[in-house]
């Protein structure tokens, strides 16, 4: 199938007006300009989302580290890992309520107290945060996995 501009050598040099087909399959026409116009913004958006996630993660680490130095009655750090993992090491002042018992054992009586939840993996932490939200707690924040913690640890 002839391409536009093939019969005229002057138009053939103007690739920006008549871009070549990248694939000559039946009815398939991929304009490289359109492909670049779609792919670059998507890549830029994904990059910005990753940078924002990394920045917010660093902010959360600094926030929890700052809370440890404050009065421990203003917040609760909730560790939802099992007792064995908790004994090996945990964030200072953390309260251990294993994920399996989170419906039966509430971490604090104060429903307005800020609660930071961390555990073995982010999936269980998100589930625990949802359970606490449904239980009536107002200020519940997911910290994520314990392996992301870079601050001091306590062992029991």
Order of helices and strands: HHEHEEHE
Number of strands: 4
Q: Main beta sheet, described?
A: 4 strands, parallel
Strand order of the largest sheet: 2-1-3-4
CATH topology of one domain: the name is: Oxidized Rhodanese, domain 1
What is the CATH C level class of one domain, in words? Alpha Beta
Shape: elongated
Radius of gyration: 27 Å
Secondary structure elements and pairings:
Blueprint: H1 9-12, H2 32-69, E1 75-79, H3 83-88, E2 94-96, E3 114-119, H4 122-134, E4 140-145
Parallel strand pairs: 1-2, 1-3, 3-4
Question: Would you give an account of this structure?
Answer:
This protein has four helices and four strands. It has 156 residues and is α/β, with parallel strands linked by helices. It has a domain of 90 residues: 3-Layer(aba) Sandwich (Oxidized Rhodanese, domain 1). A four-stranded parallel β-sheet has the order 2-1-3-4, sandwiched between helices. The N and C termini lie far apart (76 Å).
């Amino acid at each position: 199938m002839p391409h536009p501009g093939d019969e005229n050598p002057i138009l053939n040099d103007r690739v920006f007006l008549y871009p070549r087909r990248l694939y000559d399959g039946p009815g398939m026409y991929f304009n490289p300009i359109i492909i670049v116009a779609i792919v670059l913004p998507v890549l830029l958006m994904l990059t910005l989302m990753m940078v924002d996630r990394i920045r917010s993660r660093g902010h959360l680490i600094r926030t929890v580290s700052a809370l440890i130095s404050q009065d421990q009655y203003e917040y609760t750090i909730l560790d939802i890992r099992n007792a064995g993992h908790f004994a090996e090491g945990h964030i200072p002042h953390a309260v251990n309520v294993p994920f399996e018992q989170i419906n039966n054992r509430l971490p604090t009586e104060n429903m307005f107290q800020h609660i930071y939840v961390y555990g073995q993996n982010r999936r269980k932490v998100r589930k625990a945060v949802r359970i606490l939200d449904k239980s009536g707690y107002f200020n519940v924040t997911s910290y994520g996995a314990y392996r992301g913690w870079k601050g001091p640890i306590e062992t029991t």
